[in-house]
Amino acid sequence: MPAVDSPDDLELPASPSEVAATILRVEPALRSDGPTPEQLRVLGWEQQNAYRALSAHPEWRTEVLAAVPPELALVVTANVDAVTAVAILNQPQPMLPDWRIQAPLPPEVLIGYYREAEAASGIPWQYLAAIHLVETRLGRIRGNSSSGAPGPMQFIPSTWEAFGVGDINDNRDAILAAGRYLDASGGPENMDRALFSYNNSDHYVRTIQSYAGLIGADERAYRGYYQWQVYYAIVDGVLFLPEGYPAVPAVAVSGPASR
Question: How many other C-beta atoms can be found within 10 angstroms of the C-beta atom of residue 97?
Answer without folding.
Answer: 16
